[in-house]
Each structure stands twice: as C-alpha cells, then as structure tokens.
Write a structure and sequence with these properties.
Layout lengths: L39 E5 L8 E8 L3 E5 L6 E5 L5 E6 L1 E6 L5 E5 L5 E6 L2 E8 L1 H10 L13 E5 L1 H16 L4 H19 L16 H13 L7 H8 L3 H12 L3 H18 L4 H8 L4 H12 L3 H25 L1
Antiparallel strand pairs: 1-2, 2-9, 3-8, 4-7, 4-9, 5-6, 5-8, 7-10
Helix pairs in contact: 1-3, 2-3, 5-6, 7-8, 8-9
Length: about 325
C-alpha cells in the first residue's frame, strides 16, 4: 500500500494533525474516528460510568485512513484481527506493518498520529484517565508524574495488556455482577504495568509485603459485610484501609489468599445461600447481595456451588428434613 494512493498522507515530512482552535490537546472522548473512517463502534464505555479508563472497540470492514490530533490521554491501540497492511506516523513514520491479534501500538498523550490500513481492521482502544495515571504514579510508584511518560511503540506484543483489554470488553458487554470493583482492579493493574514496562523512565514500586494488619483487615471485612448490597469500589475499600488502592489490592491478597473481587463475590454468594434458605425470592436475594439481577446471581451461584439457587435451596431443605426425621426416630427409640 503506497502513500501516493491516498493524497495528504505524509510519511516523511512534518505532518500537523491538530485542528485549528484545539489549543494543543482535546480529550479522546471528543474525537469521532468514524467521521473519517467508516466503520462500527461495537462497544464503548462512554456511557458506562467508568471513570478510570475509556474502552472502545472499532470494527472497520475495509481500507481506511485516519488522522488523530494530539489528545490528553495515552492511547493503547490493540488489533483484534489480522490486518493486511498498516502504515502511518506515531512520532516517526512507519510502513509495512502486518499486525496480528494482540499486537499493540502506544500513542503517548500529546502526540498526534496518522493511520492508513488495507482490508479489515478491528481494534481495541484503551485510554487510561490522566488523573488516575498521575495518582498511581505518586501513590504506588512514588515518582514525579511529570517525569513519567509512555514510550511510543509500533506493532509489539504485550499479552497482559491484551488480556486486560479483552476482560474490560467482556465486562462492558455483560455488565456482570463484578461491577466497578472489577473494572477498578483491571484498570489499576493496567496502569501500574504500563508505568513499569512501557514508561520513558521505568520505575519499580517500593516493596510492600506482609499483608494487612489484623485490625485493618477486620475493619475492611466488616465494611464489606455491611455493604454487600452496594456497588463496592476498590478505592472505597482502600480508603477504609487508609492505603493506596494498588497497595491495598496486593496486601489484601496476601492476607486472605484471594483477590478483592473474588473475596467480595464469595461473601455475596454465601449471603445469597443463607437468604435463599430463609425463603426469599431470587429477585430479593439478588438485590440484597449486590448482584445486577437474578440471572447474574444464578450464573455465579451455579459456578460456585454446582447447582442452581433453587436446586441448592431444595437440597438444603431436604437435608434439614432428613436430619429432623432421624432425630425424631432416635427420640422414639429411646
């Protein structure tokens, strides 16, 4: 694919992509890629209420060309299919790329970029919120965020980033009971990994080990138990523990042997089992245990206990009846 086929694509010269009046940077939320390159925005987190990361999935059926101005956020562009040919400019021109599923491009914040591709092109876009990146850099890595910026990269593999991207898409698609707590955990992990592995000044976090203090762990567990009907957030629980969200997630796992998300889900399922045994309806149980609806409750319940909620409740009832009968028989024999 030659640049001459599409006038205006300057791979060797100094290309200015910023539109007049933008003042240098806009938010990527304000940029409409489909206005330049026809396609489908299959999934987007714009209306999902996620504050820490923007997730979008674009599907382009054929050749396309795209100019993106300088924006406030870093952008991770991950191909989710084989693309016949890609060329463009991210800081420097590139040509002849044939990305496979999972290949990634990093466009640092403040850098305009230009893209041209041949054939089908499906991509995941991940753009962490700059304020969260700053907070993670300060709280987790103890570095001046002004000194840390992502390195531009072209067509490289990072399996962890790809898996996080796919997990965020799955959560966006399903709207599962994990809710924002799970999204927060994925976003925190993504940002820390990016800062450690793809920053201009790679940094290592200070070692923190030993788990939470018993009094702090008990306070967090009591808070979780009291707020199971609510949509718990990682930052909320970290505030209860009085430490940063990332350190909290690590220390909590060390203390209980499980992730925050898994722990909360397990407590919700245990409460659901007790409420079902008391005769509450599935809808009532889902509401009181923090699941999105009864179908989400049923899926998680069956995955955990191997039975549907109704079947499990019936088994518990039968077992109790059998124990009562045995005790009654013993009483008559005496």
């Amino acid at each position: 694919m030659d640049s001459e086929l599409i006038p205006g694509l300057d791979l060797d010269g100094d290309t200015t992509l910023q539109e007049p009046g933008l003042g240098g940077r806009i938010s990527t939320k304000e940029f409409d890629a489909l206005a330049q390159a026809p396609g489908t925005l299959v999934h987007t987190s714009d209306l999902a209420g996620w504050n820490g990361v923007l997730v979008r999935y674009y599907a382009h059926a054929g050749d396309g060309r795209l100019k993106i101005p300088a924006v406030c956020e870093d952008a991770l562009i991950i191909t989710d299919c084989h693309v016949a040919d890609v060329q463009g400019k991210v800081v420097r021109p590139f040509r002849g790329q044939r990305p496979a599923p999972g290949d990634m491009f990093i466009v640092p914040r403040g850098e305009p970029s230009e893209w041209q591709w041949a054939g089908k092109c499906h991509v995941i876009q991940l753009s962490p919120d700059p304020s969260l990146v700053t907070r993670v850099a300060v709280e987790t890595l103890d570095v001046d965020p002004a000194r840390v910026e992502l390195v531009p990269r072209i067509t490289f593999q990072d399996p962890l980033v790809y898996e996080i991207g796919r997990a965020l898409l799955a959560e966006l698609h399903s709207g599962g009971p994990a809710g924002r707590l799970y999204v927060d955990l994925l976003t925190q992990t993504l940002i820390v990994h990016l800062l450690r592995s793809h920053a201009a000044f790679p940094v290592e976090p200070h070692g923190v080990s030993g788990g939470l203090l018993p009094t702090v762990l008990r306070r967090v567990q009591e808070y979780v138990a009291a707020h199971l009907p609510d949509e718990l957030r990682l930052a909320e629980l970290a505030t209860v523990a009085n430490i940063s969200p990332y350190h909290f997630a690590r220390l909590f796992r060390q203390s209980v042997g499980n992730s925050v998300h898994s722990y909360v889900t397990e407590r919700r399922l245990e409460l659901a089992a007790r409420l079902l045994a008391e005769g509450l309806t599935l809808t009532e149980v889902a509401t009181r245990t923090g699941f999105a609806d009864q179908s989400h409750l049923c899926r998680r319940y069956k995955a955990r206990f191997g039975l549907s909620p109704r079947a499990h409740a019936q088994r518990r009832t039968n077992s109790q009846a059998e124990r009562t009968k045995i005790q009654a028989d013993k009483g008559r024999n005496h």
